[in-house]
Request: fold
Amino acid sequence: MPGRENRGIGRNLALGLAAALLALAGGVAPLGQTWAAGKPGVEEAPWSYSGERGPEHWSKLSAAYERCATGQLQSPIDIRSVQRVPYTPLVFKYRSQSLEAVNDGYGVHLLAPPGSELRVHGDAYFLTEVHFHVPGEHRVNGQAAAAEIHLIHRDAQGRQAIVAVPVRDGKRNNSTLTRIIDHLPLLPGERVLYRNLGINPVFLLPSERDYYSYTGSLGTPPCSEPVLWYVLAYPLELEAEQIRSLARATGANARPVQPLNGRPVYAALRH
Ligand code: ZN
Reply:
């Protein structure tokens, strides 16, 4: 197993150590990567998906999380009525990369080195990370998917665009996801880099890429707004065992749906 870093100690210390070791080993430095609440060097209040630090209490855990309660553009949402708009494709120009992932205690995040991009309406957003939610966070007519993949992008001005891929229980084995699942860091604070294990996140997308779009937020503290969301209309099909493996790695990590507050949801559908 090439290049596996495995540390079960305190989360920030472990991340720092792993990053330093990776840098020493000539690995990809985690420049500009953010996951969960992270500003580098700032200790954020711990939060959770249930109990006293669960979603309904996030805004009280830290002044920095106030927007989780006061924001008017929060995510995820339940998609019920939509406005049809002419279909313009989401263009995914993703490249193969080494498998690099971190478990920050809130979930597992696949890190993307520079070079993969999403183009939409002529704007370019760079893929920074991919992570997983079980069950799905967005709902369509009240129904959540079995799981949801989030592909996080950022443009040169720091604007964020997230593509959400619903996952359905089915019969198809996704070999890219199998490779990811087999190597996910399961311990909080654990970080892995497999130089010789190539993956391309484009294989985590279904072939039909019609989508809903709306303006929302990060789904985790500090719940920053605005974030452009593109929620794919058709699911990626995975074997039930693959979804169970994802659930083991992430735990239950779906934020409840948030008030729409009159926001329009657009549907870019080909048919
Ligand atoms: Zn997410």
